[in-house]
């Protein structure tokens, strides 16, 4: 165990702890695509854990083994905070079940598991495939598109809205709210905080209105979907409170509108710049499941925040109770100690396990749906548009922040 160190001293100078020190900008202008991955790759080469000079006890975990250990140990490193905030500060919004640990988390996982099992997700495939084909067909004849805005930001969110039982017509304003929460577009902390607060208020108001409208409707006439079904849920024989339902809806909102969208952006960026991999998928759809896993491994997009519940140490660096750790799945998935040539994509890689969906009790419940959406997207796109490349007139860029995502990816193909 580390010797006690005054809080003010250790937060004033991380070097006093004898740990590598990183300077990370959480809110900044958009940057060239893949820069975030390169920055975390560089950190990982210097060590698996870094103190972040951000004005408080804050660490970033970039090694695979260390990330796995923290993710699996919810007692020492509870997941009581979430990804969004200003200047890297954790947000204070509870997201169920992600913000819970121990028995409450287990109870919620048991309640939700039947909705996200392979057996439950499988029947959605025809509808998911129809959505993909409809969206791609709308711009195929143009000979080009912005993959992010015209496909990645439309396809998974449309599936999400159908599963939740919400109108697709609401998508555009939802995307604005989501961007303010996860991908601030301003370097002004005050403006970023104002946008975040306004969007949180809007999302809460939206779901409160949806709940009220359903309760005012006879049960047999209520629209199908999770928003409606959740109104009748019980835990330990008691109805789930409206506050807990709002926390659950918020998590679904963030996961449904951002995660698969971001993965598709980086997956298509790789395929557009590696024609041999693109041609292989187009010629042999049977390779798509392996391609999905390898692209997930190479391009994780979530950095998970954990708290230290006690004084401990990681790789010789002291970590104190109350400190915050950012577990970087983008860095862990590209750790050369676990994967040979880890920053390269290899559809024939023997080791296919990865941490992109997390590990331990908080492993992503929606992983089966995400894999299905990714598989369908790659299959249908390459069936309809097998030949494409980057549009040389535009450079792909990504957002800053703790969630990695592309802002633009212009593609072109023979019309």
From TrEMBL:
Keyword Iron: yes
InterPro entries (UniProt xref): Cyt_P450, Cyt_P450_B, Cyt_P450_CS, Cyt_P450_sf
Keyword vocabulary terms for this entry: Heme, Iron, Metal-binding, Monooxygenase, Oxidoreductase
Domain of life: Bacteria
A GO MF term: oxidoreductase activity, acting on paired donors, with incorporation or reduction of molecular oxygen
Family: Belongs to the cytochrome P450 family.
Protein name from the UniProt record: Cytochrome P450
Originating species: Frankia nepalensis
